């Protein structure tokens, strides 16, 4: 049990302490008494990169099964008990991790700890064929709703498969394929639990209006007796050459509303200074309505209705820089590609101006403040840095690191990575009778905000989800 | 399988500790000399400040044939002012680390600013410029019109949006603004130009009929001075609020299928209208509708998702279109979700069975208690951020509700019993008075749906 704390002055007043139970569970606590709420967040160091051929989607399907009851919690009890206590909860699965989280009124914190411990230690006592069959259908409908039944819905899956070659652990996305979802068996789920769900493969963060000493006593009481084990298989190595070496290209002819250009560039691994520099480069180039590509493609050349860059940070493989451009009117993809390449070349040559750096750093700072504005957001970031980089304190200084990056570093990473021979390109060409509209219309709000929602994942600016949720 | 018998020590489910008091943040209400109403609330620790401006420019105020002009005007507010070109404005805003969004809806135009507290002053200056002196350059308005025309096919290709548009079209009388898309159709948007945008601005955007809500950590900030120097300089003649006409709907049970050949799911939108927040039944309606479809353990998902696996989730909710003490407002009550194409018939059969069962047997006390505990208990979580508080305060302003409305809602929910919640749920979704929109593969689903007895079926071409 070690205590370390980053001085509050460097972190905007946030501090965190670290502890370790004898079974290997790492615990991070952070106090904040502004509002009577407490967040519990548990990251398991397992994601779709740990899946094997023929069983894609298993980590996410398994995450759904974690809500189907455990030894002392029948049926949908995890949802019922948390929501009945005035809390909110969900779970998500990405390439690199699976997380489960509750935000509770502060006086209900102990219940959330008890629930998380119960499923960490005893899921298999409740897991049965009926739950598996039901959640298999639910997840297949999740796949249809979010990917297969919406225009451009499978673009992320296609580009991921191009930028990470066949056999690479990140070649497939967390949602998995229909065939593999059909093939998953109860024994697969059991084996998955025995392999990856152990206290020594997890980090627990508790943030908010808490008494740290009491919280630690509860954590020890509920989690302390769960045996650790060394069953975990490390993921296959995700290292790849920094640059692909050629442009990979695929043309998709589908019934979509307009032609589109989407590409993914291989970028530095998350956790490096170069990744922060790349984030700034993408922000200057395509991070908002004052970005170079927006000004060029949407405002001046009027080739596009939307144009933006987003970044999906990955620690165990190259991060992904995601460009998404939808055409305006009868604009041609070739003209858009030429304009994008011209802007990238100019940026690689000149780098960002001082004003652009100031704007990009201000934008990323606000995004970071937004993430830290809720106890749940803070708990998730503490877990992220603990699981992926071994040190939760790094979460509290992350924005400082972005502000230290220089314009020359931004230029260098752009010159090295944002190149034609380092991207996978997807071009959408519409087919079918999509143009004549019997009933022209526009946006209506569709979903209420009150229901628990699956959080949207980075790259937020490009509007692409990279993780799967367990409820909606 | 030794670990099916867990090795851990079990403890009984813990009981709750002592709740710490929490109240919905009450705003301080005031006004600037120019007539702008201001609601403010200090929230310690919230370093991103949220500002909402409610402008009394309802969609119904749009001139005939110019649906979408409110939307284009809202977007054009940030496309250049008397001090900055459009590109400069965007750059200055981002230099503050700020976001500025503006959109038009039935109650009015909303402008939302979020900015780190350290840069509040310059960001408020930009917001004030946008409201006070938008330039509406011809070229920028023309580009916004083209962008809007580009967006429409994307919206129609999205099943959920397509269904929402079709539901409004079916439910509300032809010729009413509420029956038509909020952001206009291709036909109406094409007619919009800088002159019509400016005319709409001149007619409806003024401080005297607007309210500014500001929430966040004001530590070290002179909010009065910041407002006086910025939005305090906005001028405009006094005016009466725009008078809207009451919302009505035809809830004759019927089905509209919007054909989407090859769709692997059917998008379902089932709706009608009901009372708004001024009606005494609102808390009971909120509870009853939550019991039906508020979460995945509610009645609908318990069957459709967790028993049958037909869907990733179905939700029931009430969305306030407009709300006013004179009874002219209404809420759109909706059940929505998507189900696999091949189980569309069985899913709708089960859905109607859930509604009929609630009508016949009522909700249970356990369901009502669970809903109250959730809806009341989540309040401190839901209002953690400045943006969430500002948004609800602004909704209250737009809906002509008192500033303590949300605070009082928690008491009223706790006082609402199972019988009232059941009655409100049944009257929200009577099984024979529902308009159903299905966006899906008509060839595969229409015949089956005709046999369900949920109303006459019309098939619309999706193209």
Task: Kindly describe this structure.
- The complex is a heterodimer of chains A (472) and B (463).
- In chain A, the strands form two sheets. A seven-stranded mixed β-sheet of chain A has the order 1-2-6-3-5-4-12, with helices on both faces. A five-stranded mixed β-sheet of chain A has the order 7-11-8-10-9, sandwiched between helices.
- In chain A, helix 3 packs parallel to helix 8 and helix 12 runs antiparallel to helix 15.
- Chain A is of the alpha+beta class and 472 residues long.
- Chain A starts with 16 loop residues before the first strand and ends with a strand.
- Chain A has two domains: 216 residues, Metalloenzyme, LuxS/M16 peptidase-like (Cytochrome Bc1 Complex, Chain A, domain 1, 2-Layer Sandwich), CATH 3.30.830.10; 198 residues, 2-Layer Sandwich (Cytochrome Bc1 Complex, Chain A, domain 1), CATH 3.30.830.
- Chain B is α+β, with helices and mostly antiparallel strands and 463 residues long.
- Chain B folds into two domains: 206 residues, 2-Layer Sandwich (Cytochrome Bc1 Complex, Chain A, domain 1); 207 residues, Cytochrome Bc1 Complex, Chain A, domain 1 (2-Layer Sandwich).
- Chain B contains 17 helices and twelve strands.
- A six-stranded mixed β-sheet of chain B has the order 1-2-6-3-5-4, with helices on both faces. A six-stranded mixed β-sheet of chain B has the order 9-10-8-11-7-12, sandwiched between helices.
- Chain B is globular and about 60 Å long.
- The model of chain B has no long low-confidence stretch (mean pLDDT 96).
- The interface between A and B is large, with 110 and 113 residues.
């Amino acid at each position: 049990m070690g205590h370390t704390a980053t001085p509050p002055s460097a972190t905007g007043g946030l501090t965190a302490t670290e502890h370790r139970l004898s079974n290997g569970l790492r615990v991070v606590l952070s106090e904040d008494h502004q509002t009577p709420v407490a967040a519990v967040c548990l990251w398991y160091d397992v994601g779709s990169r740990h899946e094997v051929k023929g069983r894609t989607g298993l980590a996410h399907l398994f995450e759904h099964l974690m809500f189907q009851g455990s030894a002392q919690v029948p049926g949908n009890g995890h949802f019922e008990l948390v929501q009945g206590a005035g809390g909110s909860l969900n779970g998500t699965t990405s390439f690199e991790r699976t997380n489960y989280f509750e935000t509770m009124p502060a006086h209900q914190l102990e219940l959330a700890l008890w629930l998380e411990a119960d499923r960490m230690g005893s899921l298999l006592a409740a897991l049965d064929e009926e739950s598996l069959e039901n959640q298999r259908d639910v997840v297949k409908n999740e796949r249809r709703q979010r990917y297969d039944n919406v225009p451009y819905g499978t673009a992320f899956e296609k580009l991921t498969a191009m930028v990470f070659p066949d056999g690479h652990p990140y070649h497939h996305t967390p949602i998995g394929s229909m065939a593999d979802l059909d093939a998953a068996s109860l024994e697969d789920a059991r084996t998955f639990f025995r392999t990856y769900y152990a206290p020594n493969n997890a980090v627990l963060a508790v943030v908010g209006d808490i008494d740290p000493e009491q919280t630690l006593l509860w954590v020890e009481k509920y989690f302390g007796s769960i045996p650790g084990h060394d069953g975990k298989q490390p993921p296959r190595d995700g290292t790849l050459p920094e640059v692909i070496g050629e442009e990979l290209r695929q043309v998709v002819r589908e019934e979509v509303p307009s032609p589109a250009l989407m590409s993914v560039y291989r970028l530095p691994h998350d956790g490096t200074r170069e990744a922060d520099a790349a984030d700034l480069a993408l922000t200057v180039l395509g991070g908002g309505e004052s970005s170079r590509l927006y000004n060029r493609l949407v405002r001046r050349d009027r080739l596009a209705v939307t144009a933006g860059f987003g970044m999906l940070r990955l620690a165990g493989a190259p991060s992904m820089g995601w460009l998404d451009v939808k055409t305006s009117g009868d604009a041609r993809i070739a003209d858009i590609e030429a304009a994008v390449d011209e802007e990238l070349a100019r940026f690689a040559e000149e780098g960002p101006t001082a004003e652009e750096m100031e704007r990009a750093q201000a934008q990323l700072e606000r995004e970071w403040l937004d993430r830290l504005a809720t106890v749940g957001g803070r708990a998730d970031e503490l877990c992220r840095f603990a699981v992926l980089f071994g040190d939760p304190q790094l979460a509290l200084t992350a924005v400082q690191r972005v502000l230290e990056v220089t314009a020359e570093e931004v230029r260098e990473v752009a010159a090295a990575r944002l190149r034609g021979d380092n991207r996978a390109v997807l071009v959408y060409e519409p087919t079918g009778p999509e143009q004549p509209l019997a009933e022209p219309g526009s946006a209506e709000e569709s979903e209420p905000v009150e229901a628990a929602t699956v959080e949207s994942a980075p790259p937020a600016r490009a509007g692409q989800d990279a993780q799967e949720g367990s409820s909606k | 399988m030794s670990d099916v018998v867990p090795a851990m020590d079990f403890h009984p489910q813990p009981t709750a500790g002592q709740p710490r008091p929490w109240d919905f943040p009450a705003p301080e209400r005031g006004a600037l000399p120019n007539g702008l109403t201001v609601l403010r609330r200090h929230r310690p620790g919230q370093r991103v400040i949220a500002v909402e401006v409610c402008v009394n420019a309802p969609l119904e105020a749009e001139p005939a044939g110019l649906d979408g002009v409110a939307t284009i005007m809202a977007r054009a507010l940030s496309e250049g002012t008397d001090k900055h070109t459009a590109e400069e404005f965007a750059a200055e805003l981002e230099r503050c680390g700020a976001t500025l969004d503006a959109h038009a809806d039935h109650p009015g135009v909303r402008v939302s600013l979020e900015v780190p507290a350290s840069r509040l002053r310059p960001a408020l200056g930009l917001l004030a410029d946008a409201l006070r002196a938008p330039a509406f350059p011809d070229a920028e308005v023309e580009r916004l019109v083209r962008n809007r025309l580009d967006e429409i096919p994307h919206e129609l290709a999205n099943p959920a949006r397509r269904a929402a548009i079709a539901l409004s079209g079916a439910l509300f009388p032809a010729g009413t603004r509420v029956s038509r898309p909020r952001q206009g159709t291709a036909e109406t948007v094409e007619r919009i130009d800088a002159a019509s945008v400016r005319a709409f601005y001149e007619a409806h955007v003024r401080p005297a009929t607007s309210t500014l809500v500001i929430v966040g950590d004001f530590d070290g900030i002179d909010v009065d001075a910041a407002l006086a120097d910025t939005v305090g300089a906005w001028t405009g003649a006094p005016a009466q609020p725009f008078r809207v006409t009451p919302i009505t709907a035809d809830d004759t049970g019927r089905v509209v299928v919007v054909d989407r050949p090859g769709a692997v799911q059917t998008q379902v939108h089932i709706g009608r209208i009901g009372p708004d927040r001024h009606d005494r039944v609102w808390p009971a309606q909120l509870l009853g509708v939550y019991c039906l479809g508020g979460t995945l353990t509610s009645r609908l998902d318990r069957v459709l998702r967790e028993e049958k696996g037909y869907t990733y989730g179905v939700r029931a909710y009430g969305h306030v279109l407009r709300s006013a003490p004179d009874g002219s407002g209404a809420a759109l009550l909706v059940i929505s979700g998507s189900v696999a194409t091949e189980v569309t018939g069985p899913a709708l059969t089960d859905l109607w069975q859930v509604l009929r069962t609630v009508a016949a047997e009522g909700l249970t006390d356990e369901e009502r208690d669970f809903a109250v505990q959730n809806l009341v208990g989540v309040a401190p979580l839901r209002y953690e951020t400045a943006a969430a508080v500002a948004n609800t305060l602004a909704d209250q302003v737009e809906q002509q509700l008192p500033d303590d409305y949300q605070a009082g809602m928690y008491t009223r929910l706790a006082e609402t019993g199972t019988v009232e919640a059941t009655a409100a749920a049944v009257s929200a979704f009577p099984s024979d008075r529902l308009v159903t929109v299905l966006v899906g593969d008509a060839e595969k689903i229409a015949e089956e749906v005709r046999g369900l007895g949920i109303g006459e079926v019309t098939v619309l071409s999706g193209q």
